[in-house]
TrEMBL record, chain A:
UniProt-listed Pfam families: BPD_transp_2
Subcellular localization(s) per the UniProt record: Cell membrane
Source species of the chain: Actinoallomurus vinaceus
PANTHER family per record: ABC TRANSPORTER, PERMEASE PROTEIN, GUANOSINE ABC TRANSPORTER PERMEASE PROTEIN NUPP
Protein name: ABC transporter permease
From TrEMBL, chain B:
PANTHER family: GUANOSINE ABC TRANSPORTER PERMEASE PROTEIN NUPQ, SUGAR ABC TRANSPORTER INTEGRAL MEMBRANE PROTEIN-RELATED
Topology of the protein relative to the lipid bilayer: Multi-pass membrane protein
Transmembrane segments: 21-41, 53-72, 79-100, 106-131, 206-229, 259-281, 293-319, 331-349, 356-374
Protein species of origin: Actinoallomurus vinaceus
The protein's name: ABC transporter permease
């Protein structure tokens, strides 16, 4: 029974995710009890808050952003390339795209397209620095993308000043880029029972997910990408140009990272200001790992993550530190990689036994 | 694997060691001379002031400890990207222990234990469960800030001066100075005489107002070298990073060695974290580590996985950080000149060696830097803040060539996987 179940790779993923989730709930409950809170009533409060219409809208909006970020990370992960720099890439991209969108007046349709294109190009270019350093100088992309995150923060601080790309936001101390005019905005979708709107660019996330699936599973490039990730030497032997793959994958990952800020920029804030959300790139790493770099898995993972973030807002009112969900998320993450490793090992043994049994039949 | 280049190991004679010592001395004197020249040309006194040197020492300690942590772990074959998170654990553990016990020394112990727990987590994931080293490290980096924020919210918010993102003020370590050095050298330094004042500034910076944690950190580098390169334990540990299957066949307990190395690695990160929370500032603050764990890894790569090189790397990053903090935009601007001239020299060297592409790239960058230096008076403050990070990138880009990492670094190892 179990051996049949583990023979399927998607079943392995699902089992691993489920076990990890249970484990994370247990860990969270232990931490909550140890801090003197009642776990069931805490979960109850989170759940009833999380299913309110406003929370649903916020969860979907967050999830779309997380999804794009995780997708960007996953493109690299699929070929063992660690793009830790999604965070810097999306912030720099969102800032420059917002500045471009605010400065240029274009007809509707073209305006949005240009903004999104600018974001993708900036994100790709920023990631491209790490790619070039890797293929020409052998610099580990892990270190270089992390450094580029910091440097990106400096570049944003430099550009986002009133002498350069920023203007004062009316009625506050905040500064931001010039707001994008209505021709560049993307209308939202109403959700029954809520005054809030779902970002129109949620569809951009869906589209990116479909594109990712198609590219990975149905194109030559995707095949090469996966092959390089599984065995670089085998891929090179079969004629894959490993350096070229690194550059393309990294730039592509950066371009998708550039899209991360778009749903919010074109659907809600219309300008990049000091309070634009940060840290989504790191969240994306966690979600990509949780979703096993699979577009469907990542979708579930980002919804879960967004739900936890959103529903934790209620905990403040009950005097429970809402960072408890950070512990839940980290526990899910750490246990999912461990559990997947174990499930995979057991699964491999099952495979071997089955093959051995079949060979035995043939021989007999 | 058969056609791999076979290198005959150089016999470690006294002569070779002396030669290496002479080279280090030459490089050291060269750097010193270059800095003095730079001070004279640009008039930025902060380039060699005792304040900058003492700040360098302070900023080099956390980076150096992270780098030594990375060295311990990677010498046993486990890549440790989680150092950043382990340092975060260290800052919090130090604050917790120091505040609730009232003793800075117990704070240091708390920091070390908290860091080591982070290391243990990494060891369990990578060694026992065979999880990809980078994946586990990234997970720890995500875990650490969440856990410390939660614990702070629980334990520090009800204390005066504490909150969800910071601890109350912590007890101080005593500071030590070599007696009779500070006063006279301080006088000499004020005159800004060629060479004498520079030397006085540097010596004064190195010998006065030292924290015991700085001294412990400095001592840990030669101690690590001795343990890793002069004892049987060290040989076994390093053999796990070079060829674990061969080590296993000789009876080395590879899992035990890797566990020891990664836990020690976390403990080093914990020392660095303690320093950040208790010496570099007066309390634990969220975001205090700010990428120093990663810069430490870069320092380790720069130092070619050897303690002496690691110390030099930490010093370099500490110096750039100290310069931007104290001298600000002007002093870092002066560095452009040094960097430009240095790169130009490198370009000439590459050209002489007939490596034309590298030479051309170096030359173009060098000319760009020099033009930048002569056409501007200052660098933008917002970007100068990140000069350690930019230095990291530049150093890796221009130096990451003739390095030799442990052969089995980052590879998955299962016991009995050799047949």
């Amino acid at each position: 029974m179990i051996s049949n179940l583990l023979a399927k790779s998607y079943a392995r993923t699902a089992v691993a995710a489920l076990v990890a989730l249970v484990f994370a709930i247990v860990v969270t409950s232990i931490v909550l009890s140890a801090s003197g809170f009642n776990p069931p009533s805490t979960f109850q409060a989170m759940f009833s808050f999380g299913k309110q219409p406003d929370s649903v809208v916020n969860t979907v909006n967050r999830a779309a952003t997380y999804y794009l970020s995780a997708l960007a990370v996953a493109i690299g992960f699929r070929m063992n390339l660690f793009n830790i720099g999604v965070d810097g890439q999306y912030r720099l991209a969102a800032m420059l795209a917002a500045a471009a969108g605010g400065a240029w007046a274009l007809p509707a349709g073209l305006h949005q397209l240009v903004i999104i294109l600018v974001a993708a190009v900036v994100g790709g270019a920023w990631a491209g620095i790490a790619a070039i350093l890797k293929v020409t100088r052998g610099v580990s992309e892990v270190i270089s993308t992390i450094m580029l995150n910091f440097i990106g923060t400096g570049v944003i601080a430099f550009l986002l000043s009133p002498d350069r790309l920023a203007v004062k936001v009316a009625g506050s101390n905040n500064i931001g880029t010039k707001p994008i005019s209505s021709s560049g905005r993307v209308p939202g979708i109403s959700y029954p029972g809520s005054d809030l709107q779902i970002y129109g660019l949620v569809f951009l996330a869906v589209l990116a997910g479909l594109g990712f699936w198609f590219m990975i599973n149905r194109t030559r490039f995707g095949f090469d990408l996966r092959a390089t990730g599984l065995s670089q030497s085998a891929a090179v032997a079969s004629g894959v140009d490993a350096k070229r793959m690194v550059v393309i994958a990294m730039v592509l990952s950066g371009a998708v990272a550039g899209l991360v800020g778009m749903p919010q920029l074109l659907g809600g804030s219309y300008s990049y200001s000091l309070d634009f959300p940060t840290g989504i790139g790191f969240t994306g790493i966690g979600i990509a790992l949780l979703g096993r770099n699979n577009p469907v898995g990542i979708a579930f993972a980002s919804l879960l993550w967004a739900f936890l973030d959103q529903s934790s807002q209620i905990l403040e009112f009950n005097d429970i530190p809402k960072e408890i969900v950070a512990i839940t998320q980290a526990a899910v993450l750490l246990s999912v990689v461990v559990v997947y490793e174990i499930v995979n090992r057991v699964g491999r043994r099952v495979d071997q036994r089955r093959v051995a049994a079949q060979l035995g039949e043939v021989a007999a | 694997m058969i056609d791999q280049e076979v290198r005959t190991p150089t016999p470690r004679t006294g002569g070779a060691r002396a030669a290496r010592g002479r080279r280090a001395l030459t490089i050291g004197l060269g750097v010193f001379a270059a800095l003095i020249a730079l001070r004279l040309i640009t008039g930025e006194t902060d380039i060699t002031s005792s304040g900058t040197i003492s700040a360098t020492l302070g900023l080099a300690v956390p980076i150096g400890m992270a780098a030594m942590g990375g060295l311990w772990s990677e010498r046993s074959g486990v890549v440790n990207i989680g150092l950043e998170g382990m340092m975060v654990f260290g800052t919090w553990g130090a604050a917790f222990a120091a505040y609730f016990s009232g003793s800075p020394w117990l704070g240091l112990l708390g920091g070390i234990i908290a860091g080591a727990v982070g290391g243990l987590l990494h060891a369990v994931a990578t060694v026992t469960f065979g999880v990809d080293h980078i994946v586990s490290g990234v997970a720890i980096n995500i875990l650490a800030p969440g856990v410390t924020r939660y614990l702070s919210d629980l334990l520090f918010t009800h204390e005066t001066g504490g909150g969800a993102t910071q601890s109350p003020p912590l007890p101080d370590f005593p500071t030590w100075s070599v007696p009779g050095v500070g006063g006279p050298l301080g006088d000499l330094e004020k005159h800004h005489w060629f060479l004498i004042s520079d030397l006085a500034g540097m010596v004064r910076g190195l010998l006065t107002n030292l924290s015991p944690v700085t001294l412990i950190a400095a001592a840990l580098i030669p101690i690590s070298f001795f343990l890793l390169w002069r004892t049987a334990f060290g040989l076994r540990l390093r053999s796990c990073g070079e060829n674990p299957l061969a080590a296993e066949s000789l009876g080395v307990k590879v899992y035990t060695m890797k566990y020891a190395a990664v836990v020690i690695s976390g403990a080093f990160a914990g020392v660095g974290g303690t320093f950040l929370a208790m010496v570099a500032s007066s309390n634990y603050q969220e975001g205090q580590v700010n990428g120093r764990g990663f810069i430490g890894l870069a320092a380790m790569i720069f130092g070619n996985w050897r303690p002496g090189g690691v110390a030099a790397g930490a010093g370099l990053f500490g110096y750039t950080d100290a310069l931007q903090l104290r001298g600000g935009a002007g002093a870092v601007h002066a560095m452009l000149l040094l960097l430009g001239v240095g790169l130009l020299a490198l370009a000439v060297w590459h050209g002489y060696q007939r490596r034309m592409v590298t030479a051309a790239v170096s030359a173009v960058v060098a000319v760009g830097l020099l033009a930048w230096f002569f056409l501007t008076d200052e660098l933008p403050r917002e970007i100068v803040t990140y000069s350690p990070h930019i230095t990291t990138l530049l150093v890796l880009a221009f130096a990451a060539q003739r390095l030799r990492m442990p052969v089995a670094d980052g590879l998955r190892y299962r016991r009995g996987g050799g047949h």
